[in-house]
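[audit] Reproducing an earlier prediction to check determinism. Same input, same settings, fresh worker. If the tokens differ from the archived copy the diff job will pick it up downstream; this log only records the rerun itself.
[audit] input (213 residues):
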Amino acid sequence: MLLLISSALAAVLVVSTTDIDDDCCGQKVVVAVQALDFVEAVGVDPATDQSCVVLKAAVDEARLRAAFESAGFPAQKIEAVESCPEGTKPRIEPWANVADLDARIVSRGELVPLDPVPGKVTVYDFGAPWCGPCIGVAETLKAALKAESRLAVRVVTLEGKDPEESFAQPVVKQHLEWAEGLPYLIVVDAKGKVIYRGSVVEDALAKAKKALK
């Protein structure tokens, strides 16, 4: 349990843990740590059991350790570095800290039904870790959720380090067979009818707004 940082000055940290499995557990770390309000982005390298944490404010060591603990991988060493080591390129998890909104991740590539949230219009947001435009779509959807309580978002994250891996996920054949790429949105009304499929978030929200009238 070693801390080698100046919490007031550090901007990038490397956190060493043990036995992170790329298939499931690296993502658990990203979600848990990205939810911290002083964290900008997180990258995980299962090959070295290291995580790179990019800060946007002074680190709270106790909360950082608690986040790694909650993901199942206690921090053994935390060091300040100038930049993230190779293999730990950070990824932003845009839906990591939305407890105050009706939004949650329902799939990380697994099959998932397009069920409506009772009494609401539901937007299914399909994205991937490597998809830069998906972050902008997520921010637009978050703003819409804050403005309209009858709207819900269910997130499908296509896990993978590149398009080839992500588009091999089972949910792609289930719902995205005719999609040209990501981001991709499917809007379902309160009765479960699909009222929009496409990549333009403004059009998706316009359809949702019309269905709420």
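[audit] rerun output stored. Observation attached for the diff report: Residues 1-8 have pLDDT under 50 and may be disordered.
[audit] end
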